[in-house]
User: Fold these one by one.
Assistant:
Number 1:
Amino acid sequence: MPVKTIADWQPDPGMPVLVRVDFNVPLRSDGRVLDDRRIRKAMPTIRRIIDAGGIAVCMSHLGRPAGIGPEKRLSLAPVAEALRGLLGSAHSLYFVERACRGERAQAVVDAANEGDVVLLDNLRFEAGEKAGDPDFAADLAALGRAWVNDAFGTAHRDDASMVAVPMAMQSRPRVAGLLLDRELRFLGEAIASPARPFVAVLGGAKVSDKLGAIRNLLKLVDAIVVGGGMAYTFLAAQGDAIGDSLIERDMVQTATELLAEAGAAGKAMHLPTDHVCAQRIGTGVHTRVCVGDVPDGWMGLDIGPATIEAFTGVLEHASTVVWNGPMGVFETSPFDAGTRAVAMALQGATERGAVTIVGGGETAAAVEAAGVAEHLSHVSTGGGASLRMLEGTPFASVACLEQA
């Protein structure tokens, strides 16, 4: 369902615009922002509002507070400092510390001038956020005369700030931000009308985490490439020995059924044929390449060289690629080689005209580390949300926006 976006609308000068952003960013041990990627991704929408003279009233969650009041360690104060640096001196930023609604928040919004930015504190300091409480939502809605959803990372959630707030603003403009629009278009079009061959690359730890996505993708793709810890559940299902590798034993029967479904549908499901193995995870540990079975006492921690060649060979012929989940324990060298090789293969695919889409926090971090993020078609800011889209799940938060 196409929705109206901020590209189709702009605020009146001085209009306070509620903007749901995803500033759920990692913090350093000293409290500063470790990775400002999500903040940077929201800047085009924020700038569009303030450059038109509107007041951007930004709201987000951070971490998982108890929901019974402010917690200093999860305050958005470090985010405010990072956002202030990105805005520069041309625009003022006001941070409503320890509050996201009520008289103090309203007073800050009322005092703001054209082109200013207001950042409310962590929405999850309030129990009503996760509960979808309409009274809490009404208090938030009172702070703005228009609504912009630019938080793809939480688009699959029914939190108060995602659904109940726009529902409380039915008579006011309700549009998608530039980031949300881009995410919906890339993932939506890739699923609905992909250029073929269409290949899905799935990794990560668990089959159960991606079961819905696998079932839906089997109807849509031409091939699925499976790596990471989840591959060993599939390998066990087809009778391979996997040693001490990660396995979900309660998912082996499901994996058997999925392999049968893929075969019946004529869809290739590519699994690793060799593995970089070790007896424990760590930098500098003794490793060996195991072809076929993994011996007892050893763990498969990355795809092996023959599998890298096979997987990248599949990607060389793809016209659309969606990737969610690393191929191994990519955070620890030398078990990052498979993930890095897939990242480089996606860059090559993009350069020859393929549409390449990466979803998931770990996968996004991996393509950043490989230095290819800027060379891909799209790197999603939302792991859970992108996975739900691959499952074909509609979002209530998007249904609340005005139709185009």
Note: The first strand starts at residue 16 and ends at 20.
Number 2:
Amino acid sequence: MPPILVVGSVAYDTVKTPFGQATEALGGSATYFSVSAGFFTRVFLVAAVGQDFSEKDWQFLETRNIDLQGLEKVEGKTFRWVGEYGYDLNDAHTIDTQLNVLAEFRPKLSETHQNLEYIFLGNLDPRIQREVLAQVHKPRLVACDTMNYWISGHFNSLVETLRQVDILIINDAEARQLTRESNLIRAARKIHGWGPQTVVVKRGEYGALMFQQGCQGRISVFGTPAYPLEDIYDPTGAGDTFAGGFMGYLSGIGRSDWVSLRQAVVFGSVMASFNVERFSLDRLKNLTFTEIELRYKEFKEMTRIDDVVEWQPMSRL
């Protein structure tokens, strides 16, 4: 079971939704990714936190199949994010962002990290993402995430990073912004031209689409709906949790063929569906792998289409 390396942010989030709020809750892209991926494989986390980072939170991460030798505790405060959601839970309104120690974060990989084959580059400056890749010896599969800030302000640098990436995981609004294409198939085709052979587009409550570049310009497409939930409390970290389930599964089985990628999309969707059921990481803290397997089976049944039997089409007029 090959382990996976994730480089990203560990943060404290203050979040308000129409259904409640959480103050100074453990969050960050690398945190959600790591806890999610830890259900499938060993995770090596590289990030920076401040001296104010809670010992309780450190101990929690250690219990989740996460190696913390790359989690630096440095002078200063941990990254903070304050956000609010309306009834449209697909749209987060950022109220305050304090980079703190993340502003000076420059990942230095240990020899163990440098030899890992499965790499996930969390939402960071594209230049820092490339600095990480420059330290890895022989990556087998590299995936990355990004956001509108890097797309609008660091476009050329981001495209340079994408040339070294196998899989881009991005939401639909970011895919359109990145490519200036309204159609997601055309957006995927343009991203394929920059490097990534696989593009996974997260669509929030509408599910996910995966596009893979094939022979002679053909694109293979796979889609899955979001799991229907009656109670959704907090979408914060859902995309990172999706990425953790997706990459964690691929790393755990050591394969990335088309069948495995399709299964990974479903596992990513499963993990994201659990994440939004509570604030912060509260649902993932109590999640069992049996629950994950059962929901995966529910996804299979929900999307199964049987062959047509004994059907005679009407003759053409």
Note: The domain at 4-303 is CATH 3.40.1190.20 (UDP-N-acetylmuramoyl-L-alanine:D-glutamate ligase).
Number 3:
Amino acid sequence: MTESQLNQKTKQSSFRAVELAELIDGSLKADPGLKINGFGGVFSADSKEMTYAESDKFLKIALARETGLILLTEELYQEGISAIIVDNPKLAYARLTSYFFDDRYYQPGIAESAILGRSFSAGKEVSIHHRVIIGENVTLGDRVRIAPGVIIADNCQIGDDVLLHPGVKIMAETVIGDRVEIQAGAVIGADGYGFVSDGEKHFKVPQLGQVIIEDDVEIGALTAIDRAANEETVIGQGTKIDNLVQVGHNVKVGRNNLIVAQTGIGGSTRLGDYVTLAGQAGIEDHLEISERATVTAKAKVSKDIKEAGFYSGIPAQEHREYLKEAANIRRIGKLKKEIADLKGELEKIKNYLREED
């Protein structure tokens, strides 16, 4: 079973050190029976928890706190440390934390103050907290956790092991897969921005489609993903979206994308698999972005990206070309001075020739 296939039912609250080492194929340098009840950063983990260290500085902090188990590299290991040796401690830590039971908002039952619409149905161990509003014909899977203040509109389907943080708004017709986490204040399925003008007034184009969020997606706080004008806006499996991101109507996001804060994606754009959009990237509408393309911070994409690679600048271009152009721009001041100096020398020569005549 992969990490993405885990659900709340299969996760555990504690592990023996040998079990943790086996899960990541690490080399155990600790008592195999050592019981680990959780995890934390080097500044907070205690004797019953695990952490990771990527430098001598953080290893010393973890040791001073007598942390139960430390993930580190062979180079950092010292005799007597309770550790699992791995190539990439941070990656190993992230993988292992996914095996621990997640108790955030896990309180099976339905709060008295929750409002449930007609034809509502839910699976096993659902946690619905105070002041939740759920519309008509909504279906929840097993172990769904809905924090206070969430609103789910009519005709929505939500899969297993979904976590909705406080204040999330799920608008009508939205479909959410399994193991999806949506952070506080995000709005999924609001009307897309579609208007047509007659020269004097702007008329709204009805937004009649839906949003589909596939399995293992995470969506950051205050992000907005618009419903399609027609058909579907889709966020592909395994994609991770940061805070304050805008995804326009009819956008198709591929699998395992990384979309960073304050990025905006114009309507009907299609992103391939494994695309990365860095902070404040801007993508115009009706574009195609190749799989495994990376758009760097603050870049503006105004035409299709047809090949994998790094793209930067306004408008975005292949990163090496952007660097050359940026270097040339930085030379403009020096070139202006050189031209001014040459003009001065030419004037001196002209004056000399006049005097000779």
Note: The longest helix spans residues 332-356.
Number 4:
Amino acid sequence: MAAPIETLVILGAGGDLTSRLLLPGIASLLASSRGNSIRLIGVDRDPMSDAAWQRRVAKSFAGVDSRLADRVLESSSYLQADVTDATALRRVLDAATGRAALYFALPPAVTVLACNTLASLELPPGIVLAIEKPFGTDLASARSLNRLLQKLVPEEQVFRVDHFLGKSTVLNLIGLRFANRIFEPLLSAQNVERVEILIEEELGLEGRAGYYDRAGALADMIQSHLLLILALATMEPPATVGSEDLRGAMAQLLRATRAWSRDGTASRRARYTAGTVGRRKMPAYTSEAGVDKARGTETLAELTVAIDNWRWAGVPFVLRSGKAISDPRQEVIFTFRDVPHLPTGFEGPSSQAQLRIGIRPATMSLDLVTNGRDDPFNLEWDRLDAEFGPSELSAYGEVIAELLEGDPTLSVRGDVAEECWRIIAPVVNAWRKNRVPLDSYAAGTRGPKSWR
């Protein structure tokens, strides 16, 4: 087993990702039973003293009563450097001690430039490169990025981050499916009519126009998070939950996945207008700072895919994700086919039974038909509910833990990233040609009325 990471270097330490997600994730880890001491080095182009950097770290560590967190805070330091400059990047590498991980909390284009710079340097043995999504902007660029990374380090030293793949999420899905004999035989085309994977959120743009307006809901969420959840929810049982078996099973499933209509038109897109989400008034997306109105970026995307294998052939999988949605859901819904025959004399429920697996919060519910309490011939619904055990770590805390422990299980493998881009390519092409209309919905609703 590889040695654990001793130094974590955050490239882009002054950015929003670092303050909003990475540092709180590290704090979550240090406060847990899995925490270990690390050296923390922040790197960015703007000048900042060690003391100012430590104050920024301390703000994220506030409320963490941990001597370990105090030690990490006191030993953390800051380096001003342009990571696209070879001399500056060499200085960053030299500052690390022991086995190091470089976390690229940078815009995708800058990450590529920094990796090209790394290609001109001799890298420390065992160095790990942690890359945030998106992994490219299409299939060709994803392949190009993977080839570049292969020149730098072996695949097992590349950690492609997807925080939706927290270990608790992965193990909840796999444990429910493969440790319960009642579920595994049911989850197939013979019994399932359709499957929906929904990741919705109340948040709007939140100042992310620089990235989001060029990506949109399709590339930001469905291409990565939802397709990976699809793989976990539908793949064949892996031999083990080790990284190679698990990621190999995900890759095999995604290779069998395609857009439902090969021209990409089995899809829908929409963008929010002004509205109220909860008690918060939200401007129209096109009124947000930094948005190019002419670009036609969608904030709600839906596409249907097929899985061409023995288990799932013919079943439609609907993937939907959007912003500024009221009563948002994050769940996988299996809708079962009707029973082949209901004995005469019974009056059954009009809707179909569903198995719902909640991602956040982590829950499970299964519809069951039982005899009516007043009239045993009048069948009615009951529901079996369960909650999964909560993780002691935040989503990014789990990611950081696996990164520091050298476990690639939660890392997106290079071929998996490429398959995700391949799957959505027909949809992207159809949208560029305006073969799918751009609908609208008021912020704080469930989406366009025509979709319901």
Note: The chain has a mean pLDDT of 93.
